[in-house]
Specification:
Mannose-Binding Protein A, Chain A; 28% strand; 544 residues; 7 helices; disordered C terminus
């Protein structure tokens, strides 16, 4: 078994009179028969026959709870308190309400601490099988944990009190014994530490001190309500403080001269006094404690290029309308800074001009926006990042992986002549006519004959500020241009050659047939008698 450090071994057995007040009535808290205090916890032993519930209530009246034994250190504290005295004392263990019987295979056998948890690094169970009903735990002189019915009477109980901090023992003084009393009623003079609200009594001086927070740093220390130094038996002692600090209101503690000073921003210790100071941009007021703002714009002209605005503790530079602040300097604001252009913008005198990226053109219906544009008969489409959802400019159709220009002139939109161009078309009128509604032609009136007219294959001249008309959308989808397969071309060529040969053969056959009957055609093919007959030879005759 691991032992406590030597400093933890001293144990004060308190109130050796082991009175056992009657049960069940307990008008005031019990006095412990023994107690031990460490830095953050105290343990106390109470004798008196009580059931588990009454023992738990007795610990709670003193501000604690039944003892938890989570390590061998706590177990050694029990051994020092018992001092080999026989009997069984209640611990802070009871069977969990969700269980009806104990579980011997579990580390805590289904029990839980009064702190409503089952965390532990140590157990010391006496051998036992499963037990059912309301069960609680006692510890014996042999430090074994035993299961008992909660309504049984144990010989006593152990309490635990936990604290965040503690007061040390007062320095020993020869001939001045000190007696301490804890909040839970333990008395003695050999504690290792004292919990908050403990009282230290020095009978020889008639002095009582209390362990309380100092009121400034929140630390625990010994003090009393009456100010001034504690009496030492003879004379009138007086406390003093080192340089940089002064006596506190109690006449014993030391504090900074700036504690409670009326300085608005900063306090600087000066000997046993203080001086108030202010941040940069402020100056100390006439009262010596408040801070007033400096008007930097008025005191230092030229701080800013254009406008200077004073602020609390400083200033701010701003620019005139039409300018904006860029890296601490005022620059003339670009018209494009707030322009609603969709893609690009260019500053021009008196305003801005919207532009578009490559592959786009300004939308004639909305100059701020851009639309797809192609200046050739074929262009690649604009697709999303996955190569899908492809789009073509207006006037083009998607054919496989290319945007192909629609030849609107094949759709007979124009009344007379038509010129196709990428993405659109243009109608023309012959001499003596003018273009109407962009596609029709009307004869020129006498007044119009003197003005320039739209000749054939000449584009219509639009008057100034006339918006360019939108290319009419085709009423039907034009047929898709199909390229002939090389095999088809070869077939056509072979067919043409065969057709020509067939025609030659047919002509030759007909010529032979005309010359096949000499008896009936001697007048054409008489040969040597042709002069006698007076006939003229036929040029297409029988030269062959």
């Amino acid at each position: 078994m691991r032992r406590l450090p030597l400093l933890l071994l001293p144990l004060l057995l308190l109130g050796t009179g082991l009175g056992e007040p009657g049960y069940p009535g307990e008008p005031e808290p019990l006095a412990p028969s023994g107690a031990q205090c460490l830095q953050h916890a105290c343990f106390a032993m109470f004798w008196g026959a009580r059931p588990f519930a009454a023992a738990s209530a007795g610990c709670e009246r003193g501000g604690g709870h039944l003892m938890t034994v989570r390590s061998t250190v706590a177990e050694e504290a029990i051994a020092l308190l018992l001092q080999n005295r026989g009997g069984r004392l209640w611990l802070g263990l009871s069977l969990a309400p969700s269980l009806h019987c104990t579980e011997p295979a579990w580390r805590l056998r289904g029990f839980r601490w009064v702190t409503e948890d089952n965390r532990t690094d140590h157990t010391n169970w006496a051998p036992s099988g499963p037990r059912c009903g309301e069960r609680c735990v006692t510890v014996s002189r042999e430090l074994r944990w035993e299961e008992r019915r909660c309504e049984d009477l144990a010989d006593g109980f152990l309490c635990e009190y936990n604290y965040g901090s503690s007061c040390p023992l007062l320095p020993p003084a020869e001939g001045l014994p000190v007696s301490y009393t804890t909040p839970f009623g333990a008395r003695g003079g050999e504690f290792l530490a004292l919990p908050p609200r403990s009282v230290a009594s020095v009978p020889a001086l008639g002095l009582e001190l209390r362990c309380d927070e100092d009121g400034e740093g929140g630390r625990l220390r010994w003090g009393r309500a009456a100010p001034g130094a504690w009496p030492e038996g003879t004379g009138r002692p007086r406390c003093s403080c080192p340089d940089g600090s002064v006596l506190g209101p109690d006449g014993r503690g030391c504090r900074s001269p700036c504690a409670g000073a009326p300085c608005q921003q900063h306090c600087v210790v000066s000997g046993s006094s203080f001086v108030c100071m202010c941040d940069a941009g402020y100056h100390l007021g006439a009262d010596g404690s408040t801070c007033e703002d400096n008007d930097d714009c008025a005191s230092e002209p030229g701080l800013c290029e254009q406008l200077c605005v004073n602020t609390m503790g400083g200033f701010e530079c701003r620019c005139h309308p039409g300018y904006r602040m860029v890296d601490g300097h005022c620059q003339r604001e670009s018209h494009c800074y707030r322009a609603p252009c969709e893609q690009s913008c260019e500053d021009v005198p008196g305003g801005y001009r919207c532009g578009c990226y490559d592959g786009y053109a300004v939308d004639p219906r909305d100059p701020k926006r851009c639309q797809l544009h192609c200046s050739d008969s074929q262009c690649p489409p604009l697709c999303d990042q996955y190569g899908q959802d492809c789009k073509c400019p207006e006037g083009f159709l998607l054919d496989d992986e290319l945007c192909v220009d629609i030849d609107e002139c094949d759709m007979n939109y124009c009344e007379h002549n038509c010129t196709n161009h990428p993405g659109g078309f243009q109608c023309h009128c012959p001499a003596g006519y003018r273009l109407v509604s962009d596609i029709d032609c009307a004869p020129l009136s006498e007044q119009d004959t003197e003005a320039p007219y739209s000749g054939d294959f000449e584009s219509q001249t639009l008057p100034p500020h006339t918006p360019v008309p939108r290319t009419p959308a085709p009423s039907r989808t034009p047929p898709k241009a199909e390229l002939l397969h090389p095999g088809a071309l070869v077939g056509i060529a072979v067919g043409a050659v065969l057709t020509a040969l067939a025609l030659l053969a047919l002509g030759y056959h007909l010529a032979k047939k005309r010359c096949r009957s000499p008896a009936t055609m001697d007048y054409k093919c008489g040969g040597p008698h042709e002069k006698e007959l007076g006939l003229q030879p036929v040029a297409s005759g029988c030269a062959g």
